[in-house]
Design a protein that fits this description.
5-stranded mixed sheet, alpha+beta, single chain, 12 strands, 17 helices, Cytochrome p450
Amino acid sequence: MSVTSDITLADLDLFEAGPPWATFDASRREDPVHWDVETDGNKGFWSVTRYHDIVEVLRDTQTYSSERGAVNLEELDDEQLRVRKSMLETDGERHRALRKLMQGEFTPRALAGYETFLRGLTASTLDAAFAKGEFDFVAEVAADFPIRVLARMLDVPDIDIPKLIAWGNRMVGNTDPEHADVLASDPESEKYRMLPFRSPAALEVWAYGDELKRQRLGKPGTDLVSSLANGVPIDGKPLSEDDFHAYFLLLVVAGNETTRHTISHTMNNLIDNPDQMRRLQEDPSLIPWAVEEFLRYASPVYHFRRTATRDVQMHGKDIRADDKVVVWFASGNRDEAMFERPYDFDVTRKPNEHMAFGRGGPHMCLGNSLARMEIRIMFEDLLSRIDSMERTGPVERLRSNFVNGIKRFPVKVSLK
């Protein structure tokens, strides 16, 4: 397959059946810095698809900035940036200060105290699903589990969990007709241009966060909301209302979506690779390391975006100041220059320096230790209980070129 001018990774149809691996392969081989045309009024972007080039972009924040937008391809004006700016769209000292505000909550040492809770939660989640025999793996396991962890960390009641799931679906699924209140491509979304993902769900998340903040401001508490409400970043600049909204929304979305989809993809991949599943069942000590292959193979986030701050060349292409530069993590995770037999699902793969959480640079995913722990505990328990699992219907995917998501995944389980 050749990369031609009429192929663009802005085309959501390319992602309808899952990641467009053939397109990524061709781009890495023939045109690793490829200009992608957009037809929605945006000006286009450079796609970077080779592993080492992606790392270069992520680490060089002076040349490739997050300040003009990092989460998706939307081009934001100054007013939108001011209101919607999150830690993800911040570089330099302020980014370090915002990150430090929560960093201590996500260290392996801090998270160790959650292990007993996580094991109990995993057991109850699987008990309820397995009792049905046949069930939707996403609804009963993958979506339910990480959001309950987040609810615990936010110290909110379980009765609010359906709202948290729905808000994430509506925002991250803003290009999927099933989930979006208004599709991001719909002219009507202009009414919501000041909201993250152009989704009115953001207003509900902000109002929910504001009420939690009101209840906890000035009071002792170790939950994430109390840390945000009462903490001051190390640069001495308190969180503004917009800062709090952005940070809280980021926790709601990032604390759920990527782990949820990694768990779904991993079960699907284990079904497709029964030899690898049997290997883990026979030797559970392999699971902690196998988590790295679970993440590499899932690639739950397709891309992040940067903006060039100056004219620069890469592979002979002239990237101009203010051009969007998009790094495709999914492509990097299949780069044959980095991974031997990249399309083999190998739970013993070592080394495995995947980029599911980014790779290097200051924006490495803050919650990566929590995600690893959740995925490890889930599959340690799940694989110890089942003899096999099989699909009973099609895997339905999120229509998106940002999140590699699974919406539904019907299965039947045979227990030991």
